[in-house]
């Protein structure tokens, strides 16, 4: 009986950790939403500092990285893999053009709403399992590279770029 009680307690703690992690990721997304809503069309195209990335590039970049979470977490195919060549594989300015800011904003909301829905439907017991895009031997060598770590890593990534975007204000 004591072992069952301990297992139930640990399961409850895992559920709390998962909920807190998802909440932290969503908080960073809301911060990006707030910054995006403050940016004028001119500011979106303004470099954060001379010779640095523009806001439009950073926004496309975080969309692409959130979108990469779908296959990693086992939620299916990405929604906008076409963004990679503009926002992942190269720095700002290497692409000839970017989608309109209004299109990027729609992608942002689409990706995050679908991710959040999938995250909330994943049982807590699945969060410490193998990332879907990683082979079993790799996961066995490093079990800390699990689904929960993907969300934690992306939360930190978003936070970093929010700091950069704040330079515009």
UniProtKB/TrEMBL annotation:
Pfam families assigned = DinB_2 (PF12867)
Q: Which organism is it from?
A: Mucilaginibacter lappiensis
InterPro entries on file: DinB-like (IPR024775), DinB/YfiT-like (IPR034660)
Q: Which residues form the DinB-like domain?
A: 29-164
Signal peptide positions (record):
none
What name does UniProt use for this protein? DinB-like domain-containing protein
Q: Which Gene3D superfamilies does the UniProt record give?
A: dinb family like domain (1.20.120.450)
